[in-house]
Specification:
The chain is mainly alpha-helical and 133 residues long. It has helices spanning 25-33, 37-49, 54-65, 94-119, 122-132. It has 2 domains: 11-71, no CATH class; 93-133. It has 5 helices and no strands. Helix 1 (25-33) packs across helix 2 (37-49). It is elongated and about 80 Å long.
């Protein structure tokens, strides 16, 4: 028994203008295959240097055909951290990912402490009484 909402969203090949150097084609291909964008760029430049002019035509065609990635929503303040296990994979190095996650939790901890201070203070009780009037 299979339901339509059980399926994973299908990956799309889109241009990534946020990480673009020229048009975002190489960055989009890198996102699609979950590899580093610099690796795709090196492959494209190497193919052009060694006389595969057809790659330039394919790049321009992809530039014209592929849609851009949608702009991130303003409500999305949290982005998932992808940790890479191989050099060519997209994502952050494990130490950098740990540092980012640790920083995010420290910020959340300080916000939680500020809320606890307010809720346990006399100002909270006074505000609550004023709202009940």
């Amino acid at each position: 028994m299979s339901y339509d909402n059980d399926k994973k969203p299908r990956k799309q090949l889109l241009r990534d203008k946020a990480n673009a150097k020229v048009a975002g084609v190489c960055a989009g291909i890198a996102n699609y295959f979950n590899i580093e964008a610099w690796l795709v760029r090196i492959i494209v430049v190497t193919a052009v240097i060694f006389g595969h002019g057809f790659v330039v035509i394919l790049y321009i065609a992809a530039w014209m055909i592929l849609d851009e990635t949608p702009a991130p929503q303003a409500t999305d303040s949290h982005k998932p951290v992808g940790v890479k296990t191989r050099v060519y994979q997209a994502g952050e190095a494990p130490r950098r990912a740990f540092h980012d996650i640790d920083e995010e939790y420290r910020e959340l901890e300080s916000r939680l402490q500020a809320m606890e201070r307010y809720v346990t203070s006399n100002a909270y009780q006074v505000d609550r009484e004023l709202k009940n009037l």
